[in-house]
Each structure stands twice: as structure tokens, then as C-alpha cells.
Design a protein that fits this description.
This protein has 389 residues and is α/β, with parallel strands linked by helices. It has twelve helices and 17 strands. It is globular, with a radius of gyration of 24 Å.
């Protein structure tokens, strides 16, 4: 049963079962492409959303999970197993911990709606509340806990058949929030390194008015000679916070053209069916969500937009003795909003934006960023958009 669900798994876990949902909710859920319904495995639904090894064992990328709705689950096996029959969990505390959510709470775990009943056992309610707080503290801002009044652990499921039950409304609100027409992952086959290939076949074709969720990558850790784990952990990034997409892109670098290209890693291209040269293209950015809880910037003596005005830039200036450095900056939540922790006392509010957004350019040698015929490097912006738009 578990393995079969894994093979079908694609974008969304709803634990509890579609047959237990109100009729109007069930039909709506069935219409959503890629939804997988898992019955009576609320704990496993949460664990699969946290631990990528379950999907990886079946050749599936963990970042395809859009969201998870565990309904009245237990979560901390190391606590729950103490009072459960040993035929279920055995007697090894290390095995209990391995099967628990505890080792996997961290950033970049996706969206989650946890539902429990006011009549649930106190230990179960406490586990869910503690887990929700831990997930949000780790930077998962779209983790929400909802208590359903006048319900018990059992009636949470049976009451879903009632047309006016609030659980169905909560589920559909969550599902609709994350329903998009298309999802474009940041995989080696959808990424470009440092340029806008005008003759590349689109990795996605959409219709005007459709909504796309697009994953992107920073080039930090993805393009250097040193392997990403060594490089990023050397900066201070924990191994569990390094995306699989970074590892896979780094492994795909060999054979990618580099002449005339910059360093950015860019997702696309996306083709809008029916769009023609000269048309006005409107793109609405509905939301920008950070994928990792860290960022990096660099300092060097003659780098950056204002490099020509820095001391040491002119020919008669004394040379500055400043070695190039890359700085890791942690991000997270403080006082209800996402911030960069510049120091323990200085928190800089984040306003995420798209660093690169462009349409197909018309590369002309001699124009900014065009050193090779037909190749528009990604560093300078242009009439087509591009870097720092």
C-alpha cells in the first residue's frame, strides 16, 4: 500500500481520504491533476513530506510535493511508541527516533495544514502544536495548525460527510491556494547557465492567462569547481539545507557551453502560445517564496556596480589589500516577518524579487553582454529585461 502510493505520488498529499470528504470537496480534489490521496496514514503523510528518502527510493524528486494535510496525526514516534504495543514499533529507541519527524524538522519543507479536534487526546494536540511551532521557527512560513471544535479524533473523519462541515472548507482553501496550471522545476534539463538561448526548445508551453509555479536556483554552490557539499558546508550551510537541485545541476556542468556566458542559473524558457514579436507581454508575479534559509554575497576590492569609483580602481591609486570574500547570511522569521540576520542585533527585512526576468533577446555582437554571435550573456540587462530587472 505504501509503495503503491509512492509510485503515484506527484504534487499533493491529502491524508484522510477523498471518500471521507464532502461530495463537493471530493469532486474538486479529483479534478486537480497530480493529487494523491492516502487514507489512514496521517503520520506517514507528514513524514513523507519531511524526509526526501522515501520518494528518492522510487526515483521521485522531493520538491514536487506542493503541500501536505495531515489530519489529527501523531508525529513524535519516540514519545508515542513508549505506550504502544511493541509489535508495532519494536523496543529500540533509536529506531523510534529514525521513524519520527524529529530528525527532519528544518527549512524548505513546503506547505502544510495540520488539523486536529478539540476532543483529541491532549498528548496528540500537544504534539501537533509543538510540531507546527518548530516548523515555523525553522522558516516554513506556510505551516498552519487548525483546531476543529466539537469534534473527537474519530468524528473528524466521519463528520466530513456533512455538507456544512468546516474541514472540507479548510482543505479546499488550502488546495486552491497552491493550485497552479503548471509547475516548472529547477532541474538540469530546465536550466540554462549564464545566457538566454534564443533557439532552445521551450521547456514549457502555456496559454495566455495561465499560472505557473517556477523553481529557481542561486548560482552560489552550483557552478564552482569544488563539489557543492564541500563548498557550501565550508561557508556554513548545513548539509540538510543544500537542495538536491543544486547537486544535480552541478553534476550537469560538463558539456554546457561557456563562451560568452555569465554565471547565473536561469530556469526556462517558457513559451506563451500565440505570442508574437511586437506583442505586449504582461507578467504578474503573484508571490516570491524563498527556498532556503540562507543567502550569500561577495566583497572584493574592485567589484560591484560602483567598482570604478572605489579607492584603488584608478591607475594612480594605491592598490587595496582586500582578498575576495563570500559571506553567508542566514534568513528566517523575526517579529512575524522574513528577515536577513545581518548580526544578532541587526535584522534586515526581506523583500524577495526576481533577479532575472527576460524575454528572448536579439543578440548583436558589441552590445552589452554579447561577445559571441547569437549569445546574450546574462550579466547586463537590456531592452529584453534580464539581470536586476
Amino acid at each position: 500500500m505504501f509503495a503503491k502510493c509512492l509510485w503515484l505520488f506527484s504534487v499533493l498529499i491529502i491524508s484522510g481520504g477523498v471518500s471521507a470528504l464532502p461530495q463537493q470537496t471530493a469532486s474538486s480534489v479529483e479534478d486537480l491533476e497530480g493529487v494523491v490521496v492516502i487514507r489512514n496514514v496521517d503520520y506517514l503523510a507528514a513524514l513523507m513530506a519531511l524526509d526526501p528518502s522515501y520518494l528518492a527510493a522510487h526515483g521521485l524528486a522531493h520538491n514536487t510535493i506542493r503541500g501536505t494535510i495531515p489530519i489529527s496525526p501523531f508525529l513524535y514516534v519516540e514519545e508515542t511508541a513508549k505506550d504502544r504495543p511493541k509489535t508495532v514499533w519494536g523496543e529500540d529507541p533509536e529506531a523510534w527516533l529514525e521513524a519520527s519527524v524529529t530528525p527532519h524538522v528544518g527549512p524548505n519543507k513546503g506547505q502544510m495544514l495540520l488539523i486536529y479536534a478539540d476532543g483529541d487526546d491532549k498528548w496528540r494536540r500537544d504534539q501537533i502544536d509543538i510540531f507546527g511551532e518548530a516548523m515555523r521557527a525553522a522558516g516554513n512560513r506556510r505551516v498552519r495548525v487548525v483546531e476543529m471544535p466539537d469534534r473527537t479524533h474519530g468524528s473528524l473523519m466521519t463528520s466530513m460527510n456533512a455538507p456544512d462541515d468546516r474541514i472540507g472548507d479548510q482543505v479546499m482553501e488550502f488546495v486552491k491556494t497552491y493550485k497552479v496550471d503548471h509547475f516548472l522545476p529547477s532541474r538540469p534539463e530546465t536550466l540554462n547557465w549564464g545566457w538566454y538561448p534564443i533557439d532552445r526548445k521551450p521547456v514549457l508551453t502555456i496559454q495566455s492567462g495561465e499560472t505557473v509555479r517556477i523553481n529557481t536556483l542561486t548560482h552560489v554552490g552550483a557552478v564552482q569547481k569544488e563539489d557543492p557539499v564541500t563548498f557550501l558546508t565550508g561557508l556554513g550551510v548545513p548539509r540538510e539545507e543544500i537542495l538536491d537541485d543544486v547537486l544535480d545541476f552541478w553534476a550537469s556542468r560538463e558539456g554546457r557551453p561557456r563562451e560568452g556566458r555569465s554565471g547565473h542559473v536561469i530556469t526556462g524558457p517558457i513559451y506563451i502560445d500565440g505570442a508574437e514579436r511586437g506583442d505586449m507581454l504582461e507578467i504578474q508575479i503573484l508571490d516570491v517564496e524563498t527556498r532556503v534559509s540562507w543567502g550569500a554575497n561577495s566583497t572584493r576590492a574592485q567589484g560591484g556596480v560602483f567598482s570604478t569609483s572605489y579607492p584603488g580602481a584608478r591607475a594612480d591609486d594605491p592598490q587595496l589589500e582586500m582578498s575576495p570574500m563570500r559571506h553567508l547570511i542566514r534568513t528566517g522569521k523575526a517579529n512575524g516577518r522574513e528577515v536577513a540576520f545581518f548580526s544578532d542585533d541587526i535584522h534586515v527585512p526581506l523583500a524577495p524579487f526576481m533577479g532575472i526576468l527576460a524575454v528572448a533577446p536579439d543578440p548583436v555582437v558589441g552590445e552589452p553582454g554579447v561577445m559571441v554571435p547569437g549569445v546574450q550573456g546574462s550579466r547586463p540587462p537590456g531592452a529584453f529585461g534580464g539581470n536586476r530587472t
